[in-house]
Every structure is written in C-alpha cells, then in structure tokens.
Specification:
By secondary structure, the chain is of the alpha/beta class. The chain has twelve helices and nine strands.
Amino acid sequence: MHNIADKKLLMLRPCDIITTGNTPRQFFDPDELKLLSRSISANGIICPLAVRKVYRGKYTLITGERRLMAAKMAGIRRIPCILYKLDEASAEIYSLVESIHGKQLTFFEEARFINALIVERGLSETEVSVRLGMTQSAIALKLKLLRLDKLTQQKINEYSLTEQHARALLKLPESKRQAVATLFFSEHTHPDDADKIVNKIMSPPKRKYPVPSESEPIAPPQPTPTYNISDEGVGKTITKAAIGDIKLFENSLSKLSETLCAAGIHSTIKTNETAKHIEYRIRVDKSDTNLQKFKQLKIC
C-alpha cells in the first residue's frame, strides 16, 4: 500500500516521459484522441498521469498514455504527473488495474496482459487474482481466451462480439470458428444463446425415420432445415429424403390392391417400363361393388 507521503506531484515535460509500449491498451481511436486533445487545449489535464522514476530527469509512464498522446497533440509544455515508488512488475499491475476499472480494454487485451504478468514477471495466478481483485476462476477463463487463433480474435473484435461468444467458440474446431463467429454476427445472436448454437453444431440431432410396415404405404419424410458448417462458410441447407428401394414402393401398391380386393372391390395393377420411366396404373372395376362404396373410396 502507498500512502500520500509516498506520492509526489510533478510538472514534467512530455519529452521526459518514456512510454515502454508494454501497456495493456494497444489501440487508440484517432477521432477520440483529437477530441481529447481539443478538451486538453481548452481545460488542461484534470487527472494527472502516473509515472515512476527510472534515472535522472527521466520517468516511465505507468498510466495515462492516451492523455499523454493527446497532450502532445495539443502542444502542452508541462504535464501534471504523480510520482510512484514502484518496481516494474507493480507498475504494470497498476496500469492494468486502471485500464480494467476504466473499461478501456478489450477482453483479449486483458488476457494478454495477465498472461504477460504470469509468464514474463513470474507471478502466480493466485498473486495476480489478489492484485487485480479477480477470482482465480475468472483469471483462468481470461487466459483460456488466448487459445483462440489470431484470425478468430480479429473476427470477434471486428464484429464486437462479447467474451461469452468467444468462450463458446473455444468448443469448436479451429477450422469452424471464424464461420460460426460470422453466424453470430449475421443473426445477432444473444450471448446467452451462443453456447446453445455451438452445442447444436457439435452434436446435431440424429434423424430417425419410421420403418413402414408391409400394410402401410411409404410416405417420404418432410425436409428438415439443418445448420451446414463448413470450412468455407455457414448456411442453412435443406436435407431431402427419398425412397431408397423401388421394390418397397411396388410392394406397397400390391398390398393396396389386396386390401381393395378383400373389401369386395376388384382392382388390377399394370406396370409399363420404358427407358426413361416406370408407369404404374391402378384399375378399379365398378361392377364388383355398389356405387355408394365406390364413392366412399379415396385413394391419395
């Protein structure tokens, strides 16, 4: 902990403040910088930057890189800074904490910086969770995001998808992630529904077709829309079913003829086969039954 006696307010020239480039935030909107520069020109810097001393007359920036860039654009000669007595690892944690509190980072930037603290600074996940005020499970979830390839990360950032979308994509093979990210964007998928869609893609329902009995005619199943996820893209396709064996169809017609005969209706089935098609003709003789029975007979 640092008390007020450990801190000192300085008015530094912009050239005396060194940026290492090792900061959590990597992207700064040029339009936002212009607006901030105009505000600083009119009102000055209200919130001081945080720095630490590295050698005589030179200071390393801890927090406030965006304000420093805007101040340089505005031509400010002296910038208010608070001097902290910190080592390099603690300074990086301060920088990350301020960015998280200010909601200035993407979740991938957070994950990369947390990983750097662990890998490059040698901090444990427990130490990082205590310093950042995050649970260890939250730290672990952040680090898992880095398993997504760079192209998928770019898609997620481009489409402004959420961390929940990104975690859902982790369940998919790498070849399908970009396509599903595009699906999330095009269909405006709510974060809470991302897991459901991924689970359907990973475990599509098995279609079960009823096996017809010999006494029942075969009715083809209705087309069912399914998700078609391939390396080339995403789309909804129609799956069509057909009768696989023409003999089954012929057997059904024979059963129909037998049923008619059993009801007292004489019927015959003639087959005419050509090079292009097979023609089935059913003939029902009215003389074998009365007209009323014939009118009640419906063949579809």
